[in-house]
Amino acid sequence: MARHYHIGFGPEDLGDEPPTLALLSGDPGRASAIARERLSEVTVLSEHRGLNSYAGRLPGGRRVLSTTSGMGAPSMSIIVNELVQVGVRTIIRIGTCGSIQQDVAPGAVVISKASLCRQGAAEDIAPTEYPASADPFVTVALAGAAERLGVDAHVGVTASVDTFYEGQERVESANPHLLRRLRGMTEEYRHLRILNFEMESGTLFKMGNVYGFAAGCVCGVVAQRTASEQVVVSATTDAVDAAISVALEAAASL
């Protein structure tokens, strides 16, 4: 079978012990760091177009992929489709997010059990009403991993949207004139007990349920929207490291 165009590898590149679990990061630097700093026996599968993919072993010996999805749901949907084609059956997204709840602070992690999905890519996967729910076993594994590691973790519903600025009701941008339907959205979501904003999980969860793979998501909190629209740069390293640690610990138990 030929190599897939976007991920840059095919089943024949995965050897005699092909990984069935993928750790999915939007940032190619994060995918690379996971592979080089957290895995052993690392093989570079592709670094084509910044969509980096690596195979390696967890400390317990399980072989996994560390793969880049790109930014946003459309790019992610392409990568996920091709990962499933090469035999991946579990995908854990490791990302960043902005909190909209006072008690979910920068540096913590959010484990999404489901998403309010406002994403165009997801409309090509399933109807709007189709639930964007994470795999319950992956979610429990992530929550258990966070507890064992002593990570400040919050399990709940995520708002998964297409855009970083307008779609998350940011007015400190090139376009401060938001559409009426977006004004007051964050406060409305807060009262719905939604924990955070991010840009991929809703489509990932719908794909998991439609395609038949297990999907989970853990995001480091890098913004506190109850205080500011800005990313808290000082919290990003700790937040991302915590999310990675939780995902790796969960992956070892699945």
List the topology elements.
Elements lengths: L20 E5 L2 H11 L1 E7 L6 E5 L5 E6 L4 H13 L4 E10 L9 E10 L1 H4 L12 H14 L3 E9 L23 H7 L2 E5 L2 H11 L2 E11 L8 H21 L1
Parallel strand pairs: 1-4, 1-5, 5-9, 6-7, 7-8
Antiparallel strand pairs: 2-3, 3-4, 5-8, 6-9
Helix pairs in contact: 2-6, 4-7
Structure, described:
The chain is of the alpha/beta class and 254 residues long. It has one domain: Nucleoside phosphorylase domain (Rossmann fold, 3-Layer(aba) Sandwich), CATH 3.40.50. The protein has seven helices and nine strands; from the N terminus they run E-H-E-E-E-H-E-E-H-H-E-H-E-H-E-H. It has a five-stranded mixed β-barrel with strand order 5-8-7-6-9, surrounded by four helices. Helix 2 runs parallel beside helix 6 and helix 4 (136-149) packs across helix 7. It is globular.
**CATH architecture group name:** 3-Layer(aba) Sandwich
| Strand order in the sheet with the most strands | 5-8-7-6-9
| Total individual domains | 1
Radius of gyration from the alpha-carbon trace, in angstroms: 17 Å
Write the element-wise H/E pattern from the N-terminal end onward. Answer: EHEEEHEEHHEHEHEH
Give the end-to-end Cα distance, rounded to a whole number of Å. Answer: 28 Å
Task: Give the structural class.
Answer: alpha/beta
E-strand count = 9
Q: For this structure, what is the CATH homologous superfamily?
A: Nucleoside phosphorylase domain
By CATH, the topology is Rossmann fold
Mean pLDDT: 96
The largest pleated sheet is described as: 5 strands, mixed, barrel
Which stretches are poorly predicted, pLDDT < 50 over at least 5 residues? none
Helix proportion range: 25-40%
- Strand content bin: 25-35%
The CATH class designation is Alpha Beta
Number of discrete helical segments? 7
The shape is globular
